[in-house]
Amino acid sequence: MTNLMTLERRQVHLDIATEAASTAGAILREHFGKLASIEDKRPGDLVTDADKASEAAILEVLQRHLPDHAILAEESGRLGNLDSNYCWAIDPLDGTTNYAHQLPIASVSIALLVDDVPCVGVVYNPFRNELFRAATGLGATRNRQPMSVTTTASLDRSLLVTGFAYDRRETSDNNYAEFCYLTHLTRGVRRLGSAALDLADVACGRLDGYWERGLSLWDIAAGVVLVREAGGCVTAYDGSPVDLASGRLMATNGVLHVELGNALARAPQEASRLVYRS
Ligand code: IPD
Ligand code: CA
Ligand code: CA
Predict the structure, then answer these.
(1) Domain range for residue 244?
(2) Which bin fits 31, alpha (ψ -120 to 50), beta or left (φ > 0)?
(3) pTM (two decimals)
(4) Whose CA is nearest to atom 16 of ligand 1?
């Protein structure tokens, strides 16, 4: 009985997140190529009028339906009932750098966490009109059709994706060695510029795996639900349970998980052998 009620509630929350993502996606399409302002929050970390308009639209939908819930939104911070054990994590435009350069690889990412566990995730790419949805126990879909991860069983047959955080010039933990070594071991490593879409692409079976550090909760919470419900695996690099607050995670089809984790651990030593020195 309780389970059924929980699943029914999750479906309601999934539909509310979908309404918010579709509304925000339409706004992103409207502003594309017509930006009034592009500001640097910190070097390389941009915010545009489209990010703000998208976020305002998402907040309006969530606050109208669920005024008692907490919200963590990238541009507005913490809002709503901060004592609630229901918290929405919102990225109104994931892939702002692409978007500002008129490269249509970007998304809206909306997740619901219950007691800090992501349970509902919606990622919407308004340029391809691709809607990725999942909720714990309800499965994962792409444009309302069930989706699942790949069955690729070895890194040498895999296509992976990663990203580089905005602090990459300030730390040696910048993912360059990992990128170099995994490029060597696989069919390729893509850098597409939207963490939420990277996770969605693993969930729907286009890509076999993803890793990244320096992420925020709003970048990854929705995508984590997509990958898990699509049959994949999400952990820390060493295979231990992921701490989303650490901003570091590895997501794969499950079959590749140990091999990718081992390669990431070896990367700092191995990459230095691959770089040409005169
Ligand atoms: C960024 C994107 C990018 C990732 C960065 C994120 P933003 O989000 O997800 O792929 O590499 O770490 O911050 O700034 O476009 O919302
Ligand atoms: Ca983001
Ligand atoms: Ca963003």
Answers:
(1) 155-273
(2) alpha
(3) 0.96
(4) 94
Segment 74-117, tens digit of pLDDT:
999 999 999 999 999 999 999 999 999 999 999 999 999 999 99
Side by side, which strands form the sheet with 145-146? 77-80, 70-73, 86-94, 107-114, 117-125, 130-135, 139-142, 145-146
Number of structural domains found in the chain: 2
Residues 6+ apart with CB under 8 A from 86: 66, 68, 69, 70, 112, 113, 114
Please report, in range form, the residues annotated as the binding site for Mg(2+): 74, 91, 93-94, 219
Query: Of 99, 122, 146, which residue constitutes the final position of a domain?
Result: 146
Q: Alpha carbon of 247 to those of 69, 171, 213, 214: distances in Å?
A: 23, 15, 5, 5
Question: Residues 181, 51: one domain?
Answer: no
Residue 278 in any domain: the answer is no
> Does 119 lie in the same domain as 29?
yes
Residues contacting ligand 1 via CB (< 6 Å): 45, 91, 94-97, 163-165, 193-195, 212, 214-215, 219
Q: How far apart are CA 149 and CA 60, in angstroms?
A: 33
Does 269 map to a domain? yes
Quick one: which atom of ligand 1 is closest to the CA of 94? 16
CA of 123 to the centre of ligand 1 (A): 14
Domain co-membership, 55 together with 172: no
Q: Ligand 1: distance of its center to the CA of 212 in Å?
A: 10
